[in-house]
Amino acid sequence: MRTLRVALAQLRPHQASPDKNVERAARALGEARKEDANLVVFPELFLTGYWAKDMLYRLAEPITGPHVSELLRACSEHGLSAIVGFVELDETYLHVYNSALLLSPDGEVAAYRKRHLPTFLVFDEARWFKAGHGPYSLWRVAGVPVGVEICYDVFFPEVTRAYALLGAWLVVAISASPDPSLRFFKLLTRARALENTVFFTWVNLVGVFDGLGFPGGSQVVSPLGDVVLECKTFQEELRVVELDMGLVRRAREVRPVIRDLTAWDVAGLYDSYFRYVGLAPPASWPRLERGRGTVT
Questions:
Q1: 114 catalytic, yes or no?
Q2: Which among 44, 61, 88, 149 is annotated as catalytic?
Q3: What is the spatial distance between Cα 97 and Cα 48, in angstroms, rounded to a whole number?
Q4: Residues 159-213 pLDDT 10s
Q5: Pair 268, 198 in one domain
Q6: Are both 86 and 183 inside the same structural domain?
Q7: In terms of residue numbers, what domain contains 56?
Q8: 292 has a pLDDT exceeding 80
Q9: Which of 57, 63, 188, 201 has the most CB atoms around it within 10 Å of its CB?
Q10: Catalytic residue among 61, 75, 88, 114
Q11: Is 151 a catalytic residue?
């Protein structure tokens, strides 16, 4: 089984200044290359800064945009893959997404669009962004199958479970989580790793923006829920960790959670969800036969 060296780029972006942030990312890629990293992970919305607000539409660009192309060239130059948060403009120029760029050294580029937009407390993301949807897909880094999610998505176990069922060995979450939420992410990332027997890497924003503190505290969790690397709080860091993918196989031998998942577990979730929203499940979806625990 192969190993993967992942660099956690817990850095403070410049607000509404993608030119400066591309330069910062390129320097970080060069530093990570010196430590033989395969993948560098930056925080949520790193390319523009999280708190750009009304400037987001002007700063948004498609995955073929100029700043994306600059980052892609930097990845090619250093022979690295990268995951970078950015504001994505779709091909119609109508919708803006809170997305993660997936960049490969061979020139491949893709994007994951954040599915769950927080609209509570200090958050108002649904005002700025359209939520992502549709089927999940894996990305490969040095042959390792990787799933990607963004911040509030971590609170929804279905996201990481979907990646695990597709065969992910590593799930990466990029985040801009403020200080009061740090303890939740510390807990949830360990739970997501253990319940799906995957490595889980969480990279959080650091810095203070408009009086709101983002503490960093990024971490990597093993497939059995142990923290194998933890970054400092309120301090920029670039940390590299080597992940032995053989641990995924061993974890799935001693805690075969995915193997023991059944179709009626999933059907029961469908059934409960539609009862919760007061609708009948679509006729084409699996349904539980009430009182018997069987799938129809």
A1: yes
A2: 44
A3: 13
A4: 999 999 999 999 999 999 999 999 999 999 999 999 999 999 999 999 998 888 9
A5: no
A6: yes
A7: 3-256
A8: no
A9: 201
A10: 114
A11: yes
